[in-house]
Write a structure and sequence with these properties.
It contains no helices and 26 strands. With about 270 residues, it is mainly beta. It has a 9-stranded parallel sheet, with no helix packed on it. It has a 9-stranded parallel sheet with strand order 2-5-8-11-14-17-20-23-26, with no helix packed on it.
């Protein structure tokens, strides 16, 4: 295919896209334009020149991305994104049980998407940045919702508002060994029961004055005590049903702040 061509372009609604591996695209691997009511499940999109999966444009509504891996995309100087919901709008979009790792730019990128996206129980690691939460390409105020997500070993930022002034809600997320853990310098974010540790230069959380922060590890409580900081089990193969592998990585006892590193079915 020509280098500028997307490998797959979808413009249809009410699809289930399941069990595909796409690799080696000279551009984006899979782009869904203004798609509605589509389920992406059990995908492996990797080693593509630009992004893995991108949902984009106005009218992107009620789509679900489940139990999929997006990795080693965009190795070039410009970098690529593992999973993007960006450059558009539409309600009801959800990401759950996904992993994005080793991508040149962002693991999961919501940049320029002007409607809230829900991301839960997903892991983003060893990228340029972990979770990029809108803004950047738009001045819109967008209240994305993140719960039980984890960013580790990203060279830059674990959770980044990218200029989005919205009331992003972050509950029980964990940032570990990123350049900066939570970098929300513009957002009127609401942060509850999140954990951050071992960030570069001690920058676990850099927040805007308008942010509301309560019950997080940087709010005066004790430093988090994790069961293990060895990520090997979290980075292992998925279960036969495509859910995340079981792991004790970055788990804490009791009601301590931070993500529950549980497969999607167990976390309900």
């Amino acid at each position: 295919m020509p280098a500028a061509s997307w490998a797959v372009t979808q413009e249809a609604d009410h699809w289930t896209v399941q069990g595909l591996e796409i690799r080696g695209s000279a551009s984006h691997a899979y782009v869904c334009r203004s798609c509605r009511n589509t389920v992406f499940r059990g995908l492996s999109l990797h080693d593509n020149a630009e992004s893995g999966l991108t949902l984009r444009d106005a009218g992107t509504e009620n789509n679900t991305v489940l139990d999929s891996d997006f990795y080693a995309n965009g190795p070039g100087e410009a970098g690529g994104v593992g999973l993007g919901v960006k450059f558009g709008s539409g309600s009801g979009n959800t990401v759950s049980g996904c992993r994005a790792f080793g991508n040149g730019a962002d693991g999961i990128d919501l940049g320029g998407f002007t409607s809230p996206v829900t991301v839960r129980g997903s892991w983003s690691y060893r990228n340029g940045n972990g979770f990029t939460l809108g803004g950047g390409h738009t001045s819109a105020s967008v209240a994305h919702v993140l719960t039980d997500d984890v960013a580790w070993d990203n060279a830059g930022l674990g959770f980044n508002d990218e200029g989005n002034p919205g009331a992003i809600r972050l509950t029980r997320n964990t940032a570990f060994r990123n350049g900066t853990g939570f970098h929300l310098v513009t957002a009127a974010a609401v942060l509850n029961a999140n954990a951050a540790a071992d960030s570069g230069e001690g920058r676990d959380a850099v927040l805007a004055d308008s942010a509301r922060s309560e019950g997080n590890t940087w709010d005066g409580g004790a430093a988090p005590v994790f069961t293990t900081t060895d990520p090997s089990t979290a980075e292992a193969a998925r279960a036969a049903d495509a859910t995340l592998p079981r792991t004790a990585f970055l788990t804490s006892s009791g009601t301590a702040p931070g993500a529950r590193m549980a497969p999607r079915e167990d976390a309900r």
